């Protein structure tokens, strides 16, 4: 090889130098040597340089040990304290009123006295400013500034955390008189930027105020900003903040909104930190404990649509100040009490081990805490008309609390006209033995006498008849999949009966359950290439020539696995090569982000929301992505998987990032792939292709294996069913469009999740697989009555053809 032209560097060996280069003998060797030895002048320069270096080192040392210890940093603390011997007056809201100024002066002077009791604090204390007063008796919010020597910050933080003790000591010494009596002091170190001024809003009864991020809704919010909104309600009220839109950068490290149960940012009074995107169906609402609330927003290098929130006031149900309150509600004698928690958010560091020694709710002596109650904890019953519910919260942190409904029950009959589950839940009687786990503990599905329209499983369970012989083990003991073989000229009814193929769609109910007469509608005609229509459901690629021109059987190299077909069971590892059309989309220098489906040697279908620009990630650009085909494990990216770059991305022009309508995009590979056992395309359905409600379909992906959890390493598959559009639209608060459909398991537990987006919802049809849907969105993951939402591919068949030719 020619090294020079190959661009490699030429590094000769010593031997080669010996061969090729000759050193000339020196004409005057003395002259040559002399040049190398320093003269007197050189010695002088060396001494000077040495002296300069020594002087510099000494200088740095002196600076370090003498002056640096005096280098100080500004340290700010925010705090609040209750002044128990003053009553709140509206004039305290106006920081220019003489009353505000007078009380502020007293608080500042008292703070100075308090800090003077601590040697750590008195040395470095500079000044305090009063930010606001609020009701209860009077709460003062202040910022205190310290000037702290470098290295002493932790000691001052420590001293500030014991200010409450200093206040107690001071109170014990205090003579009765005009001084302020202080209590409930809380402080926290403050990011210096947080001391900037705030927007102030006072909400009045019957008025709905709004706060929103700058530029909303016309422009994304600006970068590197910090904004604060101090919200107040009239005394005796609390504030309710309801977010309509909320769309920030997904990482809270970068951009966030924090809501405090206070007027200044005190970390122990932080109610919630929010970031990312919250869909409108998953409304975010927060209630303050008193008549004040602080909302802060910080942004860094990104720019997203932002948020808008409504601010309203509510009457406070609990007067503040009383250390303990008894709220007695009467339930008639002879009755029992049932309490059902509807919300439960009592998270607190230190409470994780569930011994509930911090904040808790105690029902009849049983303590509950945390932010997740399991089904058996959500209802508590008492056989007498007395139930004691104690709510206890220590001072260390706030959270949103709980809400519960109670009702008087007949102890003999606690669930009138309903079924009583083992875990005390009451469910509608018609839900008993219907095949779904409605109680949560399966007690509604045990000891069943199955109805005529149900399958009686050997293990005692009942399952809907239309699940019989559908290829999925619904009973758990496979009894619903036995005796399914009808002869080749017969069709299998949903009730398992076999009737002659000729009886299908002949206008009479030969199955007895009508299933031989469904999907016979004339509007489900298939249009052949020659524009002639045939009325057969899903004739494409079924192996039968239905169109005169055979166009229903053209382009059918799709939807087949190489190996033998494997059965689909919910939520488990896929087999290698089982879903050869599944693609993993990686953002360069990151890992898996979304799924996609292969539809030809060089075209993929994914979700439009996967290819929206995000902060510094330009996901709409082909160059941002790396495409993995034939992949099974995310930690084995090499052969038989193939990697490709992208030539182009085509998001649907009508994609709506607020509603997720038209959530579909196309990607073209920079070079086509050859089909292998692990890489094959899925079939695209014709616009008329029917995916009937109740049909078992499969979702696949490397997404999170539980809501908020981490991504899977091995490709996962789960079987779900297509859900009726009207039923689902009601469950999803009317947010479905005709370009979406739902699939899932309504009792929860099986679903797509974050990271599965863009991937396929695969529907079997004969021996082939069709791309019925693209994973799009959902209300969390695998929640009960919250199925996954998928882009309806049939609606986009013509668009795909137009853009890709496939
Ligand atoms: C997501 O964030 C996502 N449960 C995808 C699907 C679902 C929820 C979230 C459906 O990519």
Automatic annotation (TrEMBL):
<dbReference type="InterPro" id="IPR043504">
    <property type="entry name" value="Peptidase_S1_PA_chymotrypsin"/>
</dbReference>
<feature type="disulfide bond">
    <location>
        <begin position="505"/>
        <end position="520"/>
    </location>
</feature>
<dbReference type="InterPro" id="IPR023415">
    <property type="entry name" value="LDLR_class-A_CS"/>
</dbReference>
<dbReference type="GO" id="GO:0008283">
    <property type="term" value="P:cell population proliferation"/>
</dbReference>
<dbReference type="InterPro" id="IPR033116">
    <property type="entry name" value="TRYPSIN_SER"/>
</dbReference>
<dbReference type="Pfam" id="PF00057">
    <property type="entry name" value="Ldl_recept_a"/>
</dbReference>
<feature type="domain" description="SEA">
    <location>
        <begin position="73"/>
        <end position="192"/>
    </location>
</feature>
<feature type="disulfide bond">
    <location>
        <begin position="541"/>
        <end position="556"/>
    </location>
</feature>
<keyword id="KW-0732">Signal</keyword>
<keyword id="KW-1133">Transmembrane helix</keyword>
<dbReference type="InterPro" id="IPR035914">
    <property type="entry name" value="Sperma_CUB_dom_sf"/>
</dbReference>
<dbReference type="InterPro" id="IPR036055">
    <property type="entry name" value="LDL_receptor-like_sf"/>
</dbReference>
<dbReference type="InterPro" id="IPR001254">
    <property type="entry name" value="Trypsin_dom"/>
</dbReference>
<dbReference type="InterPro" id="IPR000082">
    <property type="entry name" value="SEA_dom"/>
</dbReference>
<dbReference type="InterPro" id="IPR000859">
    <property type="entry name" value="CUB_dom"/>
</dbReference>
<dbReference type="InterPro" id="IPR002172">
    <property type="entry name" value="LDrepeatLR_classA_rpt"/>
</dbReference>
<protein>
    <submittedName>
        <fullName>ST14 transmembrane serine protease matriptase a</fullName>
    </submittedName>
</protein>
<feature type="domain" description="CUB">
    <location>
        <begin position="195"/>
        <end position="314"/>
    </location>
</feature>
<dbReference type="GO" id="GO:0016485">
    <property type="term" value="P:protein processing"/>
</dbReference>
<feature type="disulfide bond">
    <location>
        <begin position="486"/>
        <end position="498"/>
    </location>
</feature>
<dbReference type="GO" id="GO:0002009">
    <property type="term" value="P:morphogenesis of an epithelium"/>
</dbReference>
<dbReference type="Pfam" id="PF00431">
    <property type="entry name" value="CUB"/>
</dbReference>
<dbReference type="GO" id="GO:0016020">
    <property type="term" value="C:membrane"/>
</dbReference>
<keyword id="KW-0472">Membrane</keyword>
<feature type="disulfide bond">
    <location>
        <begin position="469"/>
        <end position="484"/>
    </location>
</feature>
<keyword id="KW-0677">Repeat</keyword>
<keyword id="KW-0720">Serine protease</keyword>
<dbReference type="Pfam" id="PF00089">
    <property type="entry name" value="Trypsin"/>
</dbReference>
<feature type="transmembrane region" description="Helical">
    <location>
        <begin position="41"/>
        <end position="65"/>
    </location>
</feature>
<keyword id="KW-1015">Disulfide bond</keyword>
<keyword id="KW-0735">Signal-anchor</keyword>
<feature type="domain" description="CUB">
    <location>
        <begin position="337"/>
        <end position="409"/>
    </location>
</feature>
<feature type="disulfide bond">
    <location>
        <begin position="433"/>
        <end position="448"/>
    </location>
</feature>
<dbReference type="GO" id="GO:0008544">
    <property type="term" value="P:epidermis development"/>
</dbReference>
<feature type="domain" description="Peptidase S1">
    <location>
        <begin position="568"/>
        <end position="805"/>
    </location>
</feature>
<dbReference type="InterPro" id="IPR018114">
    <property type="entry name" value="TRYPSIN_HIS"/>
</dbReference>
<dbReference type="InterPro" id="IPR036364">
    <property type="entry name" value="SEA_dom_sf"/>
</dbReference>
<keyword id="KW-0325">Glycoprotein</keyword>
<feature type="disulfide bond">
    <location>
        <begin position="450"/>
        <end position="462"/>
    </location>
</feature>
<keyword id="KW-0812">Transmembrane</keyword>
<dbReference type="InterPro" id="IPR009003">
    <property type="entry name" value="Peptidase_S1_PA"/>
</dbReference>
<dbReference type="Pfam" id="PF01390">
    <property type="entry name" value="SEA"/>
</dbReference>
